[in-house]
Amino acid sequence: MEDLSIRLSDLPDEILIFILRKLYNVEVLYSLTGVNKRLNTLAYDSIFTTHLTLYFLDKFIYPLPDPMLDRFRLQILPKIHHKVKWLNLESTSIERILLATNYPNLNGLGLYDIDVEKALYLFNSKLF
């Protein structure tokens, strides 16, 4: 009998992108960044980097776990910051994400689960 197994690396980029588009962008970036050059190239494609939602949504909004957030802040965002056009953030990570790097092409910012006092503090202070 012939061995019909196919590895992920055997698939063309178009098929991989089709599969990866079924995932959240945050999962693609977190899971594929640093694996190898080919997967970095796919993960850093504008399909996955222009519109980022950096929280989990079920019936409620859940922040990214600290290790995941730290990896985005320290490793991933500095590499893709110029591609990010929209960020969706929740209240506990807003400061850390916005201060992680400069976002020269950011056109939109969605802030979720934020109270008025924190919003006033963030946007009236000299943080940004």
UniProtKB/TrEMBL annotation:
Source organism of this protein record: Rotaria sordida
InterPro entries assigned: F-box-like_dom_sf, F-box_dom
Protein name: F-box domain-containing protein
Phylogenetic lineage: Eukaryota, Metazoa, Spiralia, Gnathifera, Rotifera
Sections of the chain in a coiled coil: none
Superkingdom per UniProt: Eukaryota
Domain F-box span(s) in chain numbering: 5-52
Transmembrane segments: none
